[in-house]
Design goal:
It is a single chain. By secondary structure, the chain is mostly beta strands. It contains five helices and 19 strands. Strands 4-3-2-1-14-11-10-17-5-6 form a ten-stranded mixed sheet, with helices on one face. Strands 8-19-18-15-16 form a five-stranded mixed sheet, with no helix packed on it. A two-stranded parallel sheet has the order 7-13. A hairpin with a 5-residue loop joins strand 2 and strand 3.
């Protein structure tokens, strides 16, 4: 299934994308695409519904494809070719950092350059959505804890991230820095999450054109690894790293400015489009 949330910010409704690409309203069957609704039994119940019996809806806005996200976790330097472009070595264990859940926006919402920013950058990433609680999970069992996958733009302010001391979080969690969606694609529809083409363009110029094939630590390993340090709950999101082509890796570096348009996508998971706006008090 492809599950969506649509409508005004804070008032999104659940939906399902049918075989013709139309959004069908799921409000009569589930309160939200969130929490317990992401478990295997609930997803199977929704999958059994004939989409033709659901009302077709006109979508003015896609919201984040997961509601009530408890933890928004990210994996740094997880693509060998991206690590090389930044001059970093591949870490011997996954680098984990957090994005504030207040950064989460819809896939086509504006991205705002934060106050004082000089180096706002882009990163197309594969997102893992947790469906079943995970704590000290073995890698062999980890995929069963994944509800599905989605597109994430891990927008980053590099000066805040790398030049302002401390952890990366301060350059990652700014408001609007976490577009998620448009769809949550259930894991049964993603035959191999480690073989998906992914791309990102700014103003029509393709900067990132890669594949999850160069991901160092794969989804099953990541879920297992993270669960050794914290429990993962249904609706938590793990953003798994980016391929090469980010702004700071250009020669000379290229960073976002007001008026720029980012377009990005991952094979089978949909596309996003964001307009960059200036900070307004």
């Amino acid at each position: 299934m492809k599950l969506v949330r649509y409508g005004a910010p804070g008032a999104e409704k659940p939906g399902m994308v049918d075989g013709d690409g139309q959004v069908r309203d799921l409000s009569a069957h589930v309160a939200d695409v969130a929490g317990a609704a992401l478990g295997d039994d609930e997803l199977a119940r929704l999958a059994a519904i004939d989409p033709a019996t659901l009302p077709v809806v006109a979508v003015d806005r896609y919201g984040p494809c997961v509601g009530a996200v408890g933890k928004f976790l990210c994996i740094g330097l997880n693509y060998s070719d991206h690590a090389a472009e930044t001059g970093a070595s591949v870490p011997s264990e996954p680098v984990i950092f957090t994005k504030a859940t207040s950064a989460i926006v819809g896939p086509n919402d504006n991205v705002e350059i934060p106050k004082g920013s000089t180096k706002t950058d882009w990163e197309v990433e594969l997102g893992i959505v947790i469906g079943k609680a995970a704590r000290y999970v073995d890698e062999a069992d980890a995929l069963a804890h994944i509800a599905g996958y989605c597109v994430v733009n891990d927008v980053s302010e590099r000066a805040f991230q790398l030049e302002r001391q401390g952890t990366w979080d301060k350059g990652k969690g700014c408001d609007t820095f976490g577009p998620i969606g448009p769809w949550l694609v259930t894991r049964d529809e993603v035959a191999d999450p480690t073989a998906l083409r992914m791309w990102l363009e700014v103003n029509g110029h393709r900067y990132q054109d890669g594949s999850t094939a160069t991901m160092v630590y794969k989804p099953a390993f990541l879920v297992s690894y993270v669960s050794q340090f914290m429990s993962l709950q249904p609706g938590d999101v793990i953003s798994t790293g980016t391929p090469p082509g980010v702004g700071m890796g250009q020669k000379p570096p290229v960073f976002l400015k007001a008026g720029d348009v980012m377009e990005l996508g991952i094979e089978g998971l949909g596309q996003q489009r964001q307009t960059v706006t200036a900070y307004r008090a």
